[in-house]
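dumping this here so i dont lose it again. seq + smiles for pyridoxal-5'-phosphate
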Amino acid sequence: MKYPYSKRVIEHFRHPHHMGRMKNPDAVGVAGNPVCGDVMYIYIKVKDNRIIDLKWETMGCAAAIATTSMLADLAIGKTLDEAEKLTKKEVADALEGLPPIKMHCSNLAADALRDAIKKYREKHEN
Amino acid sequence: MKYPYSKRVIEHFRHPHHMGRMKNPDAVGVAGNPVCGDVMYIYIKVKDNRIIDLKWETMGCAAAIATTSMLADLAIGKTLDEAEKLTKKEVADALEGLPPIKMHCSNLAADALRDAIKKYREKHEN
Amino acid sequence: MQVYLDNATTTRTADEVIEAMLPFFNEKYGLPSSEFGHSMGIDASDALEQSRKTIANYLNVKPNEIVFTSGETESNNLAVLGVARAKGKGHIITTSIERLSILNTCRHLETKGFEITYLPVDKHGLVSPDDLQSAIRDDTILVSVQHANPEIGTVQDIKAIGEICGEHNILFHTDASSSFGLEDLPMEHIDLATFTSHLIHGPKGIASLFVREDITIKPIFFGSNNEFGIRPGFENIPGIVGFAKAVTLLSKKYVEKMRKQRDHIINELTAIPHTYLNGHPEKRLCNNVNVSFSFIEGESVVLHLDMRGIATSTGSACSSPNLKGSYVLEAVGQDPEVSHGSLRLTLSRYTTDREIEYALKHIKDVVSKLREMSPFKDEDTFRKMAKEEHK
Amino acid sequence: MQVYLDNATTTRTADEVIEAMLPFFNEKYGLPSSEFGHSMGIDASDALEQSRKTIANYLNVKPNEIVFTSGETESNNLAVLGVARAKGKGHIITTSIERLSILNTCRHLETKGFEITYLPVDKHGLVSPDDLQSAIRDDTILVSVQHANPEIGTVQDIKAIGEICGEHNILFHTDASSSFGLEDLPMEHIDLATFTSHLIHGPKGIASLFVREDITIKPIFFGSNNEFGIRPGFENIPGIVGFAKAVTLLSKKYVEKMRKQRDHIINELTAIPHTYLNGHPEKRLCNNVNVSFSFIEGESVVLHLDMRGIATSTGSACSSPNLKGSYVLEAVGQDPEVSHGSLRLTLSRYTTDREIEYALKHIKDVVSKLREMSPFKDEDTFRKMAKEEHK
Ligand SMILES: Cc1ncc(COP(=O)(O)O)c(C=O)c1O
Ligand SMILES: Cc1ncc(COP(=O)(O)O)c(C=O)c1O
């Protein structure tokens, strides 16, 4: 089986990490839309400006699922400032690359995380 | 081997009858031309207005060779009047048919025979 | 277990077909280059004409009405461009769910001054004969409507369409590649028809175009005088022999078997909540199942199934090299969020009941796992979010 | 004994090639329909790209410069029509001894407002680079000159021709089907080149067109976006795999062997009185012998030889379905009465010395038998009669 995806992508696709809905998240971020086929919800728990837990739900292709799973691994334990700077490229690199065509359309997890952080800050700055 | 020719044509092509040059013919008829690829020479011996011997030489395709050979079989023994009336169709029928495209271009033996008879008559009417 | 359920893309070449072709590769490998040539060429010529006769007999048409081409794409181009070139100008009617080889040929002809009407289809993918009737103009030169759609399986009423064309004296072409051997085709109402080999367990790279004897079309490329002057080039004899052999293996008994299997699959899958059948509930190819699962995306379904040995396909944009979703699902009015979750299963005579049970079990499991992962659990939220982003 | 000496018409598919193709008929029978589809499709896609790479490597070009088509005829059309369509108008230069797929395509283009120059050839079939030089105009868009002629075997000076085209910035296409694997081709001087599979012991129904990366041509038919957008339609994967395998089997050692055999045959046959070698004495394909025997006609030679198990061909009008003689022999200025007596023997890597001895013995015997039957015994009478009837 020689998929157009790296082994890493396939691993995360088959056995995603931190997948699921969070009971009482501190914030929820969203990216993508059903019309395009990829939607990510990212739920975070924050303590001392640090992401201590992250869960997610994704509708999407293998790249969408794998990038969300990868992002979860990368984000958990980071401060909000650090996590906010996570880029699509870092996620893709951690996955040993993505097919070029999938770089921008399905690799939306970092956007969803930024959205969650933004919402968290809005709530807590008020 | 399923050639576009009847068995009869192939038989005459492989083992032509009465083939060769005649030593002292009473007349020689010619049909066809080297440019078109088919040339027949027909040599006849005549006695009491009857063809008592016929030989021929042909440059040409299988149809040309077979029709000359067949014509020889048909003409020998016939009176000049009878022989003159031999048609291309009769020759082709005796060969169990010819491919349509070969009916007119290679089936020239009857013409060569008529030419021989004409020349014979010219010589003997003078 | 390996289960191949993508028989609308291509089929396995039957062992009998391979056996029939083999001698033409390294024993009887001649070409019919000259009528008055050597035996090897004459044998090739005989094989060619015998194959033509076999296919013509199956279709109940004349051998000289069967032209061999390199594939469905070439046959469709030869039909549409061939008529367009013979007529010089005019109006062509087709549908919005034709193959790309019809649609893109029509688009090309638009740049050359031809006018094209793309008939819409209803939610089941059916063309309305009334729509056709009203689209016809004085200068309409050709109607091209596929027999059955390879994606959603909808079978058109070719008899009604052919009769309308006949009344107006307009040439009628149908791409019958997807229905060949599966659905009867009323040849008497058809002027041109495409049939391809690789969808009936024949080899790839060979197809035919039926061209009614009294019709003049112009070739789309030029060269030697083969195939009644309509298609130049040396003949692919092994391919042609294999194609003809595949035609002799067609049988109604397989159609019956596939129909039962299809109905069973449709029953099982539509019993899964939030699942929709695409295409027509009755006027449908015996080997086609196409459903959409809300809340999930098709590429992941196909990939998960493939990892379990099951080959399927989807109309999801994420699965296509240009990220465009299925234009067929769009044409039947399916919302894009739902068509992302489409899954097509297409059967062949070789598909066994055991394979189907295996596939059904895994499809249910994969759908349920992916839905667990999905942020959407109810249609309202799902549709509302799609609508918002549509604005 | 069966002796096949018609390898310029088509060749036997190599056993290694058949073996390489077989799994793609009934095991790996998928099609590369989707990049993000199932494994069977991905395997097909890999086989396609691997085959493309194999052929590109052999030619020392880039894989994305190799486009697969259904045959020499389609490749030649794609080259000439593809350039003509991209440019819209202009002047094209070709030769009087090209394949029909070039000549008839050019004739078609003449009806569309393109102007064509058909360069003459000398008595050996050679195009003069000077003639090409003087034929070039400001609006010349394409030069198409075959590498070698399949009938008389003459090999053109492609480097000189390509250099002239390069200096004038004119696209240069060569049909290299007949020379593929037999003669080196200076790819660096070529913009487009046709290579076909069935002449190198690969399967029929598959060929390729080399299109230099920086060149834009337009497709000749329309559909899906395969083959870099130049050639739509599903790929003939078994054919492509077989073609690539055939390329890997090409070897200089066969060329050496055939050259020796060819020279031996030419020596033996030209020792027969009133026999002429057609084509060039040195610049000639290693597998081509073409002679004319005065006083006899080629169809009868071919037929007699066939009955003795020897497959050959002739340029005689009597052997062709439309009774037209070889336009190639006409172009080299051969009198029709002599070209009726032409006989072509073309070798392959599989041709053995024993087969050649057998063929030579029978050719001599048949020629002598037919000459015995012929009314002509000397050139004078023969030529005079032809001249008279020419008037
Ligand atoms: C990648 C690809 N190749 C080939 C085809 C077949 O194309 P056509 O319908 O033009 O024969 C399709 C189908 O649309 C396709 O998607
Ligand atoms: C009968 C026949 N078929 C096919 C061909 C091959 O044609 P092309 O040179 O156009 O590929 C030829 C050669 O001229 C031919 O004579």
